[in-house]
Design goal:
Layout (H helix, E strand, L loop, with lengths): L2 H10 L6 E5 L3 H5 L13 H11 L5 E5 H4 L3 H10 L4 E6 L6 H4 L1 H14 L5 E5 H5 L1 H5 L6 E3 L4 H9 L12 E5 L2 E2 L1
Parallel strand pairs: 1-2, 1-3, 3-4, 4-5
Antiparallel strand pairs: 5-6, 6-7
InterPro entries: BchE-like (IPR051198), Cobalamin-bd (IPR006158)
Organism: marine metagenome
Cofactor: [4Fe-4S] cluster
Length: 182
């Protein structure tokens, strides 16, 4: 889909997306200039699995794969602004068990920029690093919610809520409320 088609798709979509699953990039940090030619692009497997799970519950889902589209930080923020969802979920996974940790630098950089531009947008993280160290991830200023384990059922429950209510009723998450971690 080219940018013209994407803009028209977004413009014609009257209903707000429930969630955008974002696969942020940190290839430039990890591989420096080599990423432009030599780094592989890993399919966003967990984003795809979570998206299909949410679609099966009739939620409106988008995926933004910054790696595959080679989106810069500014391009990513612009794209989120084009179609602001109810919830933005950073899926920080990979085929290698360490991918969740190595991907955190890029995810936090992107989340910080998006939170600065759209402070009211709830930002959520899910991934192996997040499950292993949920409080450390939740301490980050740009992170509002963390999903524990794979996050499938917790994400369904979050999307079924109004996201402003009592999140303590939702199992499998950590969250901030008035700067306190829960």
């Amino acid at each position: 889909m080219n940018s013209y088609q994407r803009k028209n798709t977004i413009a014609s979509n009257k209903e707000k997306l429930d969630v955008i699953l974002i696969n942020a990039t940190n290839l430039a940090v990890v591989y420096q200039d080599l990423y432009k030619v030599y780094s592989a692009i890993e399919p966003p497997t967990w984003s795809l699995l979570l998206a299909e799970s949410c679609r099966s519950k009739n939620y409106k889902v988008g995926i933004l794969d910054c790696d595959a589209e080679r989106l810069s930080l500014n391009q990513t923020v612009h794209r989120i602004n084009e179609d602001v969802p109810r919830l933005l979920v950073f899926t920080v996974y990979g085929q290698n068990p360490n991918s969740g940790t190595t991907g955190m630098a890029g995810a936090l950089e992107y989340a910080t920029a998006i939170k600065k531009d759209i402070p009211e947008l709830p930002i959520c993280f899910v991934g192996s690093h997040t499950s292993a160290l949920p409080l450390e991830v939740l301490i980050e200023d740009c992170v509002d919610i963390v999903l524990l384990n794979e996050g499938v059922y917790a994400l369904h429950s979050l999307l079924a809520s109004d996201l402003d209510g009592d999140l303590s009723l939702i199992n499998g998450i950590g969250y901030k409320k008035q700067d306190l971690l829960h």
